[in-house]
Amino acid sequence: MSKEIGITVKKAENFSEWYTQVVTKAELADYSSMKGFMILRPYGYSIWERIRECLDRRLKETNHSNAYFPLLIPESFLKKEAEHFKGFTPEVFWVTHAGDNQLTERLAIRPTSETIIYDAYSKWVRSWRDLPLLINVWNSVLRAEITATRPFIRTSEFLWQEGHTVHETKEDADKEVMMILEFYRQLIEDESAVPVLLGYKSEREKFVGALYTTTLEAMMPDGKALQMGTSHNLGQNFSKPFEIKYLGRDETTHYAWTTSWGVSWRIISAMIMLHGDDKGLIIPPRIAPIQVVIVPIYYREGNSRAISDRATQVADQLKKTGFTVHVDSRDQYTPGWKFNEWELKGVPLRLEIGPKDLEKHQVTMVRRDNSQKTMVTDDRILAEVTRILEDIQKNLLAKAKSAMDSSISNAKEYDEFKRILDERGGFIRACWCGDTDCEDTIKAETGATIRTIPLEPEGNLTSCVRCGKTATKVVYFARAY
Amino acid sequence: MSKEIGITVKKAENFSEWYTQVVTKAELADYSSMKGFMILRPYGYSIWERIRECLDRRLKETNHSNAYFPLLIPESFLKKEAEHFKGFTPEVFWVTHAGDNQLTERLAIRPTSETIIYDAYSKWVRSWRDLPLLINVWNSVLRAEITATRPFIRTSEFLWQEGHTVHETKEDADKEVMMILEFYRQLIEDESAVPVLLGYKSEREKFVGALYTTTLEAMMPDGKALQMGTSHNLGQNFSKPFEIKYLGRDETTHYAWTTSWGVSWRIISAMIMLHGDDKGLIIPPRIAPIQVVIVPIYYREGNSRAISDRATQVADQLKKTGFTVHVDSRDQYTPGWKFNEWELKGVPLRLEIGPKDLEKHQVTMVRRDNSQKTMVTDDRILAEVTRILEDIQKNLLAKAKSAMDSSISNAKEYDEFKRILDERGGFIRACWCGDTDCEDTIKAETGATIRTIPLEPEGNLTSCVRCGKTATKVVYFARAY
After folding, report:
1. What is the mean predicted confidence (pLDDT) over B408-430?
2. Is some CB atom of chain B closer than 8 A to the CB atom of A32?
């Protein structure tokens, strides 16, 4: 593979450039001529399709339905929840004209859809019999990014899902928030092999307009945290201004309780950064659009037909069991060139079938995660592919989990806190007084924010890492994307 | 079912009001507070998901991939193809600000994505080896509608797919256009049971910027045609301004040939209008989100458990074979109320299981399309469900096909042409001189447009129905949505 096509920098030496090269050279995404906007190319989109399928299945099993709501939101809707409006207004794209006509009211391109969805919910919800209302939307949202574009992490438009549910009681809404958090954990850890810390956001970091926000936080190899998804209990903060009321079992009218939650294509960025290596991507088998690539190897003209027939046979056998398999039968490239390309694209398992394999009734299997090569006799192909893909999935998560665990430091003193941040980054577990001003000062002085407050309080409260006052919580700080 | 919940007008008496009631009362869609915009509710979205699956499968089988491109398009891109810009500019929503900052260039919310996609293609296409490039996008596009909103037919935002392909030669592009046209026909006729006329658009009616446009035209019960989808050969009209060039097999540089094609949620509107009746929707089994609804009927407390167990058993048996089944076990509604609701929602087949059915080892089946009721013994349930659903599918298409066929009139004289239009509408098959001015006059005087020019020229050319000059084509006119 020519230099131009392969990755030309080492992950350990120039992480940022390595990331950009993997994204563009593996053809996951491309920069658009529209500054700040990204194109999701077919290979990247097919990973997104897998992620979507994994979550969509769980949502449908628990009676959530998909729907679609308008892209444009009247400014007056956004203003109904004051905090929410304040939070989003600096990043909203505003539509002012339709054709040659100036609009009487500015329209926002949705930065998130709470307001336009809740306007509809106020018409649909009448009685406790209508609840819970469990709707999810797969769409794109726009938030103007003034800083540099980073594919999948920081772009002015991104693909995501936003769930919006309505409940009778706070307890029902709490349960929904936690069930979704667990679905997200399964999607992110079990399927994308990205380990996360689960917990609450602080008052300062919570979703604008929420009662509370739960979050999943991953740690990247450069020591910076990446927020992977959030699930919010919005309390009655939106149901009141939007008049989402229901006649209760007690025959009186109540304001409903709502939740919202979302994950985006950002999951793909964590997957790239955590698992990729100097050769390119490594995609966890459960979300890989191609799990097995078969490369037929012809040395002599004579047996090329027999080899390509065998490749198709093996592919069909694996497909029948549910694996996604691609046979690379292109003539214009050498086997070596193909190996490099599929390694760059992170296909977890490669099968080679050459004349010797044919003779010995075997195939050669090469794992993408550790380059291990094994010969497997024909009768054991299915069992071995199953075993190896499961092992790769486990191996990727275990490696990433051990990296995240060893990124966690404890800090008791503010100097130590700052030193760790500068020297190695990662999560810093520290005591905090619970005061937002103190949190603000830490952010201003170090760039670190509270990424998450553990779901179950962690023990040994001493004094706040910065101000020395009595601590109320043990929390995890980090610099973040 | 109370009057408020059921359809209160007859389809034959007030078609327009009937349509609106079916759409909103069956909870397919709702009007948004944003004038001109529609909400696709969960039930409607689940039909859209079925339509999407049907087409997506065919596209993937023929090596098309999905991708995602930015929502916003710089004004300068739109201007590159002059005709295209002129065609869309009256309906474009313009973004002028991001947060508080005025943008240096106005951005259009995509009315269609040719321009931003071709800008990317110009970077991706280098050699004939990169061709064909076959990409599809499922997204929403916005075109400001100043006239009244009609759900699924006329809204300022709609869900659709847009395919954009690049080829070496005109012939390859022709083949793609025709293959997609056939996929659309299968989706619309075979799956949605909506019969169509296939053909070319006239120069006047073709897509702005296309070499030629092919179309699928359906006929609604009110005598107006509905365009169901289009597939365009764009020639080199976009590849030249956007510089999509490739190094050919002959080692010289060529401009590529491109196609684009789309179908939208409008398919749902034709399905509603053609198949629905005074009770509500009738959804063709192949695109029905629920194919079979099972209503357990308890007369006495004593056997309710046995009946609901049997309902679940039957449902599981049908689900295993791939049918989508819903058991309506709600306690707060009577069986009669449920029958009405599922009829309103157009579920093609209802199974009732009551005490007598349990005793006789049978279920009662009621078809939505003709209200036929049959008792089916337990051992024949699967076979009968399969047979009846197939029969409903066939029956819906046959009825609609016969209605379309009998809507077609021949007109030789202009007076006759106008009389038919006013008296019964439908398609008018007529000879035409081929002149755009003549076509414009017909439109101005009668409101009818050339819906389609048959793929294979139809015979007996005499003189143009309006101007009397020698005819060059037999074409189909109609008033249209």
Report:
1. 97
2. yes
